[in-house]
């Protein structure tokens, strides 16, 4: 089963650092690899990496080219398959425009955060929403989380993942895997 109505984005700007400043975080190649594979496993329509920095975009393009058309495509065809639906963009507006060009609809935005907001949607309620004919875009923040304006403007704010301790600093690729499994897994 594939979810042609569900898109995800790893957001590197605007993001908070630990001081509360809005910054651009660095793209990591581990995130590209692991999130692409997770997105493919759960049938996500497309995985976007959002960074406004040309050097970071070039890094993503080099990784993608290696695995899609370079030696990596021959060396590991399953990795190639995971990278086919990965794209790098410079803004949220570019992502929503691309999704609209693919689907004909503007996506409903779902933000994720380690913090709980008063109007957060539960996993069970969001799972029910995902079965509707709408188009959805999940935004996953890096650093210390998505800038508050993005969260405030979202259609949904997903409840945080809560472990068994007060420690709440999952790596983003781990959080994405948990969230997608809770919402889309069998």
How does this structure look, described?
The structure is a single chain. The chain has eight helices and eight strands, in the order βββαβαααβαβαβαβα. It has helices at 29-41, 54-68, 71-75, 77-83, 92-103, 123-130, 148-153, 172-184; strands spanning 3-11, 15-16, 22-23, 44-50, 86-89, 108-111, 136-141, 156-157. α6 crosses α8. The mean pLDDT is 96.
The CATH architecture would be 3-Layer(aba) Sandwich
Report the sheet-strand fraction. 15-25%
Radius of gyration: 16 Å
Q: Element order, helices and strands?
A: EEEHEHHHEHEHEHEH
CATH topology type: Alpha/beta knot
State the name of the first-level CATH class.
Answer: Alpha Beta
Distance between the termini: 10 Å
Low-confidence stretches: none
Share of residues in helices? 40-55%
Give the count of structural domains.
1
Précis, in short:
The chain has 186 residues and is α/β, with parallel strands linked by helices. It has helices spanning 29-41, 54-68, 71-75, 77-83, 92-103, 123-130, 148-153, 172-184; strands at residues 3-11, 15-16, 22-23, 44-50, 86-89, 108-111, 136-141, 156-157.
What does the secondary structure layout of this molecule look like, with pairings?
Blueprint: E1 3-11, E2 15-16, E3 22-23, H1 29-41, E4 44-50, H2 54-68, H3 71-75, H4 77-83, E5 86-89, H5 92-103, E6 108-111, H6 123-130, E7 136-141, H7 148-153, E8 156-157, H8 172-184
Parallel strand pairs: 1-4, 1-7, 4-5, 6-7, 6-8
Antiparallel strand pairs: 2-3
Sum up the structure in keywords.
8 strands, two-stranded antiparallel ribbon, 186 residues, Alpha/beta knot, 8 helices, 6-stranded parallel sheet, globular, alpha/beta
């Amino acid at each position: 089963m594939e979810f042609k109505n569900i898109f995800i984005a790893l957001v590197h700007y605007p993001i908070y650092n630990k001081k509360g400043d809005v910054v651009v975080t660095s793209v990591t190649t581990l995130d590209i690899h692991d999130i692409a594979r997770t997105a493919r496993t759960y049938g996500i329509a497309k995985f976007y990496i959002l960074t406004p920095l040309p050097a970071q975009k070039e890094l993503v393009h080099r990784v993608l080219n290696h695995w899609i058309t370079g030696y990596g495509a021959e060396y590991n065809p399953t990795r190639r398959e995971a990278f086919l639906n990965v794209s790098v963009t410079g803004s949220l507006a570019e992502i929503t425009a691309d999704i609209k060009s693919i689907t004909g609809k503007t996506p409903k935005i779902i933000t994720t955060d380690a913090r709980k907001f008063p109007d957060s949607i539960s996993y069970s309620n969001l799972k029910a929403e995902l079965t509707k004919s709408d188009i959805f875009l999940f935004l996953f923040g890096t650093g210390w989380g998505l800038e508050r304006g993005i969260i405030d403007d979202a259609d949904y704010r997903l409840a945080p993942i809560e472990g068994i301790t007060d420690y709440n600093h999952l790596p983003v690729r781990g959080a994405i895997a948990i969230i997608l499994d809770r919402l889309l897994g069998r």
